[in-house]
Design goal:
about 70 residues, alpha+beta, two-stranded antiparallel ribbon
Length: about 70
């Protein structure tokens, strides 16, 4: 990945609040925002559970219909 593309990705993460950047002289450093990342992880976990349950119900329904 080219550096400009990488920087664009970091800028998106910064706008989302997942990282912050600090510039000292010509050096820019990015730091993960652990609190925001933890909240995102929690939301993703909830979404995963929801969709796994839903897909399991769909699978059971389709298997039941195949037996008929």
């Amino acid at each position: 990945m080219a550096l400009p593309s990488f920087i664009q990705h970091l800028n998106v993460l910064e706008r989302c609040g997942l990282v912050i950047s600090r510039k000292t002289g010509r050096v820019r450093r990015w730091e993960l925002q652990r609190e925001t990342l933890a909240a995102t992880e929690s939301w993703l976990k909830t979404q995963r559970q929801f969709w796994e349950q839903r897909l399991d119900r769909q699978d059971a329904f389709l298997l039941d219909k195949m037996e008929d």
